[in-house]
Design a protein that fits this description.
- The complex is a heterodimer.
- A two-stranded antiparallel ribbon of chain A has the order 1-2.
- Chain A has a domain of 119 residues.
- Chain A is mainly α.
- Chain A contains 21 helices and 2 strands.
- Chain B has 3 domains: 85 residues, Phosphorylase Kinase, domain 1, CATH 3.30.200; 201 residues, Orthogonal Bundle (Transferase(Phosphotransferase), domain 1); 188 residues, no CATH class.
- In chain B, 39% of the residues lie in helices and 12% in strands.
- Chain B has 21 helices and 15 strands.
- In chain B, strand 1 and strand 2 form a beta hairpin.
- The chains are: A mainly alpha, B alpha+beta.
Chain lengths: 340, 578
Amino acid sequence: MKGLFKSKPRTPVDIVRQTRDLLIFADQGPDPRESKREEKMAELSRNIRELKSILYGNSESEPVAEACAQLTQEFFRENTLRLLIICLPKLNLETRKDATQVVANLQRQQVHSRLIASDYLEANTDLMDILILGYENTDMALHYGAMLRECIRHQTVARYVLESQHMRKFFDYIQLPNFDIAADAAATFKELLTRHKATVAEFLSKNYDWFFAEYNSKLLESTNYITRRQAVKLLGDILLDRSNSAVMTRYVSSRDNLRILMNLLRESSKSIQIEAFHVFKLFAANQNKPPDIVSILVANRSKLLRLFADFKTDKEDEQFEADKAQVVREIAALEPKDSA
Amino acid sequence: MAPDQEEDPKPQFPLDSHSYRILDEIGAGVSATVYKAECVPMNSTLVAIKAIDLDRLRPDFDSVRRETKTMSLLSHPNVLRALCSFTVDRRLWVVTPFMSAGSLQSIMSAAFPDGLPEQCIAVVLKETLNALAYLHKQGHLHRDIKAGNILVDSNGSVKLADFGVSASIYDSSSVGASSWSVSSPRLMFTDMAGTPYWMAPEVIHSHTGYSFKADIWSFGITALELAHGRPPLSHLPPSKSLLMKITKRFRFSDYEKSKKPKKKFSKSFKDMVGLCLDQDPSKRPTAEKLLKHSFFKNTRGSEFLMRNLLQGLPSVEDRYKASKIANKNIVGDDDEDDHGEPTKTRRISGWNFNEDGFELDPVFPHDPKLSDSVGAKRVCFGGETIIPNLQLNKKSGSIESSEEAGHGRDATVAPVTEKMESGETDVSGELNPAVKEAGKEQCGNRKEFPVVATAMVKEAGQVEGGSDRNSREDPAIPGPAVVDGGETVAGQGRVGGPVAVAGGNITYPEGFLRGLVGLRNSLYEQEDNVSNLIAMFGGGLSREAQLRKELEEQRINNLRLEMELEVYRLLLSPSSGR
């Protein structure tokens, strides 16, 4: 068998086809003839490694665009990606890593200047469900997570995930005890909420209520240091993004949000304090502060001013100092508006 | 494929701190502490716990995420894997098997200060090379190969550890070329990572990037480290080794001083190391190929290490305590070697690996003796880039007082000064010492071409804008960015000879002057960079990534300006010949 293939070099299309056949075999459950199965699985591993080397090149050669295009086209012509994702748990560790890298690369391959991976995934969004649920499986989480992050580079795929029920699960995934997995989920979460600006802005506007309720209670008020730290940083990134200005205006008008941020300002962690400041300053700088925001700021004026008096970043940071000065000015100048 | 893989199912270690009992501290770094501990529910299995202070890291935690991910997805008998990792308040605990004999660096400093016996080295290197071959096959660069990251267990097994700066060529986020297209297929890195003494020349200042072969260089340096007890140049503090080793005449004082009869090493060992230390990365062998080298034939096994390396060795925790005490006594003698030979700095264009002496020797330009010597491998640093001794001079005044070097230069330089003053430039005197290099030895050498005295140059756009900024500063002295075979003068207010044109009286193209201003400005930039860099070695990993990026930018700009200067040099050289 092997000799036959060697005599005639296989084309990328051949390799994809053979990989697909072997995946179908692998998918069919354990074969009674154990030895035969082992052989086929080894062959599958070799094929996947070969696909990787066509896509990435190797120490001897650069990837060839034409070969990559053929491979990509054949790969998405049929359901190879689905088979590969489903069979991934059956592959050994090294092959899983190779497969992950193949899938990652395929997302960027253009055929006739089209990202055909995007088209395929748009028609097969249920694959995202498998990848996301991978976070619940310790053995698969890092592989599926890496694939997922590559897939959501496509705007349509990111939109599907954002609007799916899975979005709520991320609030738990990023607090999983296993650091590798939690950190991977956090990276995906951040990607989802920052990459495709317009899509994110639309998602946040439509889902404002539940999203920020969860964000505040589960993340910003988490007992877990790393969760709070990442969440407050990401919140700053989201609110300071121009495309999210409507969301920002809404966020900084809520006294509950202000209370949470003020608590974060009081954290003993310097890093959290600094990140919290970058969100807090939006409350202070808001030129249309609702009366209840004003009254909270006025009530805490002296405490806040004292806090900012010796509030410094480790490294000199002009922008930070300028922001701080402005916040101090704003707070110092506040007059209680209400009591009318 | 099978023999080099460890396919045992990973037992799930508990993910809460209460399941572990900390026994002793066995190591500490800037933002992490390493403990010996036992995992109570797992039959009190001994483990090592690296506790990383997360508050000191950037909030995306990308670096630790990659490190723990790498460590949990790698599976090879010679690679230290993470058993699990979880956060404990502000710290991240990375739990790994406990390697009871500790690192080779620690073993050497406790029991083999002058290096290991060759047969032990062979075992260690072979095991390390197995790990490296596996990593490279996986697309990973370790980027920090050194004895301190090679661990030994009580049974003599050897594992490569510390994936803190490792990177994968398949991971778009670590390559930096995360563009959506399938471009940048070369699988190259450009960010600077690793520990200075072990860094390959192309990592320090390549314009084209580096890849797996950088690990091979570090592997070669590690071989020398194991043979001599410390890496070449280790008598210099790391910042200097990184930035200044190229300008300094240095000797292997450490290696030379040891009065003991020179150790004999086999021909095949020397040959193997020589292959790794080829300046041209493409000529260095791959890890896979290196494993077939004759040096690794008939290598003994782990039992040999157990008998010859580990016998009578104090425990890791005791060694750590001892080293902590010892370190207290030697704090602050960093700069000592600078006073030794103050003025004899020479330009070195690269390194020769001296196979007979089994050392790295500096190569001086136009030194017929060395460059003609056969058998030595010529190691040239690509851009002929000289990194000035900025930090040094800033800190301790002009250590390398160049008064004597300045003799006879003033006359030549004076006319230049006038020209420059009437031009658009000015420079404060303090910077001048920074640019000195190109030692006395070369003073008389008229054939010397001018040498660009800066390594990191700001880009052209900034060059012009920058002259405004600097006009605020102390006017008067021209910017000494380009130095000839002679020397710039150190003292305050002295003139830095900008160009090597003997006889002076040359009309400088305007663009050239602008180039000088740019270079001068770049020195300011660079000064900041260097002090940042040093701060970074001293403490604070958090800005590391940002600094790396800046350095990289500087390197690219340097190349651009170097090329420009090359043109001017060509323009000027006929007149200087006269």
